[in-house]
Amino acid sequence: MQAYVLVTCNSGSESSIISEFKELPEVIEINGIWGKYDIFLKVSDPDPSKMDQVVQRLRNHPDITDSYTMHVLYGQGGTIDDDE
């Protein structure tokens, strides 16, 4: 299972949030971005409950004010193996 998560956070907290979440094994990519959202995460794990734990941890973080999670549809483009 894979998802993209867009995060809005308190100004100035981007670097500490990125440092914290890049250590999680489920986070395979994390970047600061410009625009409506502040941080982009690519999250992947075969166990959906682990994905839920990452999203809940994001939502409960005191410096994160909003998040938007988009689950990947397998077999519709990209570089994802249809067998996953």
Chain-wise SSE layout:
Blueprint: E1 2-9, H1 14-21, E2 27-32, E3 39-44, H2 48-60, E4 64-71
Antiparallel strand pairs: 1-3, 1-4, 2-3
Account of the 3D structure:
- The protein has one domain: Alpha-Beta Plaits (2-Layer Sandwich), CATH 3.30.70.
- 25% of the residues lie in helices and 33% in strands.
- The protein contains two helices and four strands, in the order βαββαβ.
- The chain has a four-stranded antiparallel sheet with strand order 2-3-1-4, with helices on one face.
- The mean pLDDT is 91.
Main attributes?
single chain; 84 residues; alpha+beta; Alpha-Beta Plaits; four-stranded antiparallel beta sheet; 2 helices; 4 strands; globular
Tell me the span between the first and last alpha carbons: 7 Å
Q: Strand order across the biggest sheet?
A: 2-3-1-4
**Count of individual beta strands:** 4
CATH class: Alpha Beta
Number of helices: 2
Secondary structural class? alpha+beta
Share of helix, binned = 25-40%
Low-confidence region ranges: none
What's the alpha carbon Rg, rounded to whole Å?
A: 13 Å
CATH topology: Alpha-Beta Plaits
What characterizes the major β-sheet?
Answer: 4 strands, antiparallel
Q: How are helices and strands ordered from N to C? A: EHEEHE
CATH superfamily: Lrp/AsnC effector binding domain/regulation of amino acid metabolism (RAM) domain
Mean pLDDT: 91
Shape: globular
Strand content: 25-35%
Organism: Nitrosopumilus cobalaminigenes
Pfam family, one: AsnC_trans_reg
InterPro entries: Dimeric_a/b-barrel (IPR011008), Tscrpt_reg_AsnC/Lrp_C (IPR019887)
Protein name: AsnC family transcriptional regulator
